[in-house]
Design a protein that fits this description.
Elements (H helix, E strand, L loop, with lengths): L3 E8 L6 H12 L6 E9 L5 H7 L3 E5 L4 H15 L7 E5 L4 E2 L4 H10 L4 E3 L2 E2 L8 H11 L14 E4 H6 L10 H11 L4 E3 L5 E3 L11 H7 L5 H6 L6
Parallel strand pairs: 1-2, 1-4, 2-3, 6-9, 7-10
Antiparallel strand pairs: 4-8, 5-10, 6-8
Length: 240
Amino acid sequence: MIRTFGVVVPAHNEQELLPTCLEALKIAANQGGVAAVRIVVVADDCSDATADVARAEGCEVIEVRRRNAGAARSMGLELLVKSAEVDLEHLWLCTTDADSRVPNHWFLHQAQKEAEGYDAVVGTVFVDDWSEHSELTRRRFLRHYGRPGEDHEHVHGANLGFSGIAYRSVGGFPPLALAEDHALVHDLTHHGLRICRTGNAPVVTSARRNWRASGGFGSLLNAMDAPDWERAVSTGAAQK
């Protein structure tokens, strides 16, 4: 049974979007039946007020100079794991992104999956504002990504959850600047842990062009503007 949710939000110069992210997390945390929630914001190489914004919202803050999403997630999760070491079996860890908004039932949904015996939940994302992209890009994204349901194949650091024991058993997030979320899910799968891949609690994420992680979700959307993008997809060169 989950007694504490620990959420890590890596953030690089996110003072503008972080408040909306944290507001969504707090709304989800205040739903009836949700266990205690701790939010850790890892302010990674920030030159703006990201850390100050997080502290003002009552979050725990780690300031680092790595510019590495995997390392940032790992540092935040290690803080949560170490402080809950004696009660690890009752700790559920989650990650999302500073430019994203979790749904109101996010924690409740993960608690339900934990109660069903799952060790991890791999969720989906969707975009609700395409104003910085063309209609062609939007159509290409929907055609490629669709509306994932159960047993989808996508992995997003903006919508992940796993038990403290499962996370510790695979050695945590690898310190990768890119695809650290895929690497963690691969390790969880390789260790035979029970993973729920679900589209029932999607997270809203940004389609902004000034994305933070080269090669990540923002890069994927920008690549879809290219005339030969669909050919690249068919050859496996542009998969997310």
